[in-house]
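step 4 of 6: structure.
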Amino acid sequence: MKKTVLITGATSGIGKATAQIMAKNNYKVVLCGRRKDRLAELEKELSAFTEVHSLSFDVRDKKDVLESINSLPAEFSDIDVLINNAGNAHGLDPIQTGDLDDWDAMIDINVKGLLYVSKAVIPKMTAKNSGHIINIGSTAAKEVYPNGNVYCGTKHAVDAITAGMRIDLNPFSIRVGAIHPGMVATEFSEVRFKGDVERASNVYKGFDPLQAEDIADIIHFVVSRPYHVNIADLVVMSTAQASSTIVKRD
Ligand code: NDP
Ligand code: 8X3
């Protein structure tokens, strides 16, 4: 029987590439994101391969998150795999001049949003004593870099929450793990720099960064291991990157 995967942040970058690879590998796919036009376009594309359902909600809105996920039609409601991917950085400022709205956005989306989605999905997994949750962390979950303060804080929280989920869900045989990418060339930096495309593109200049498809490929690998294998924690960087701040550029 086909398994069902729910992916947050499926309208762009890592989430979109993950939806594409999972659809082509015989999973039913639930696409989540705010941008309805992108959801509709991706749903149309992936319907050539599998059954697809889209949910449009802001992960910050806990009522909408719970209602949306609880409203899934029966053929999509038995979620086997949850990919908690929605998230972004907002701003890159020292702590003394950081913007309160940026801090709220990062904490509300990257941490609280991940929790709301998990809260909606976990009962479907505990009820059947199986499931797989993959949280997308970051190298920023493992180290802190200049001006990364709150973003790194949110990703450290994702790392800790992942470990907590793994412990609490152990009695239910639910697999829980995190994947922590280094720099991936997506819309991430455009969001961080509030639409400043030139500043964003400079982040990935002079080296060969990870692509969204590289991470999607790894997510598919992690999900497709035999059930007794749980890849708990995985850090992946481009070959040019040695740490958050050390990148070999041309
Ligand atoms: P993108 O900006 O390309 O994608 C972010 C996704 O998150 C979009 O689909 C967006 O959808 C969704 N999203 C953002 N805010 C919300 C919200 N409030 N409610 C619902 N969905 C939301 O970035 P990436 O693909 O790079 O990022 C995906 C994850 O990977 C993030 O958690 C990020 O922190 C992490 N990451 C990224 C790295 C990178 O270098 N790119 C490296 C390490 C980790 P929409 O706007 O339609 O709602
Ligand atoms: C995204 C990678 O280095 O910009 O999490 O924090 S980085």
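step 5 of 6: annotate
 - The radius of gyration is 17 Å.
 - The CA atoms of residues 70 and 77 lie 8 Å apart.
step 6 of 6: archive
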